[in-house]
Write a structure and sequence with these properties.
single chain; 252 residues; mainly alpha; Arc Repressor Mutant, subunit A; elongated; disordered N terminus
Length: 252
């Protein structure tokens, strides 16, 4: 249990529930044998081939399946990793590495309008979150680490990097917020998590657009578009009432 908990460097919830994972296996499985690679590249290739399989089969995935996905002989795995468990641990560690997430956030065009810029960032956060939830569920992590304080101390540096990356995207419009951009970034990430987790969202997750709309505008009418939204709501109500009347003129 302690070894498993140390893998979960970014476990964000006390419960994990299965989400349909994106099918990235097509990018990992290559026909035939793989070309010779330097040790570091071979290790990375094995990890890349293992990740989608762990997401599908959990720790029951076989080294034969991994070898076929990587296009190598099964014995090649054991020249890089001492056993299957070590390979799975490395794959989980790679999935939880925040570097790719930070790179993606850094790639968002800061010159885009605020709403579009923040929606792109939310899509990135949401996709990563779903992948992590799927993976942790697959390997049997269904609760928080035993030592929650130690866990928080371990993940806080990573969380701060993510908050800073999102805050950078908010900075050009800081004068529009009632809170510091760091707090807005934290609120965005919290809503993204709760709105994406299947147990919290009742299997009806929020879209990135909905998340950004709530963070930026809340749920109340805005003064500048209240009349338009009110008219739209009235039209919707009128249409609904019409549909609720049977041909004889009686309400259903």
């Amino acid at each position: 249990m302690e070894r498993r908990n140390r893998l979960v460097s970014e476990l964000l919830t006390q419960y994990c529930s299965r989400v349909m994972p994106p099918d990235d296996r097509s990018t990992c499985r290559q026909p035939g044998r793989a070309r010779p690679l330097p040790p570091d590249e071979r290790r990375a290739a094995l990890i890349a081939a293992t990740l989608p399989l762990v997401g599908e089969y959990g720790t029951k995935v076989t080294t034969r399946q991994i070898a076929e996905a990587a296009g190598v002989a099964e014995g090649t795995i054991f020249r890089v990793f001492p056993d299957k468990e070590a390979l799975i641990q490395a794959a989980v560690g790679a999935a939880l590495d925040p570097a790719p997430l930070l790179d993606e956030l850094a790639g968002v065009d800061i010159g885009l309008p605020l709403h579009e810029r923040l929606t792109q960032a939310t899509v990135i956060l949401q996709q990563r979150l779903i992948r992590v939830i799927n993976l942790l569920t697959a390997i049997g992590v269904h609760g928080p680490p035993e030592d929650i304080e130690e866990h928080r101390a371990r993940v806080n540096p990573t969380n701060e990097l993510i908050y800073a990356a999102v805050a950078r995207l908010l900075e050009p419009d800081c004068d529009q917020f009632r809170y510091p951009v760091e707090e807005v970034a934290r609120l965005l990430r919290l809503l993204t998590f709760s709105g994406s987790h299947p147990m919290i969202s009742d299997c009806n997750p929020l879209t990135a657009e909905q998340i950004v709309s709530v963070v930026l505008d809340g749920v109340r009418h805005r003064p500048d578009n209240h009349t338009t939204e009110q008219r739209h709501t009235t039209e919707q109500r009128h249409t609904t009432e019409q549909r609720a009347v049977d041909p004889g003129g009686h309400r259903c």
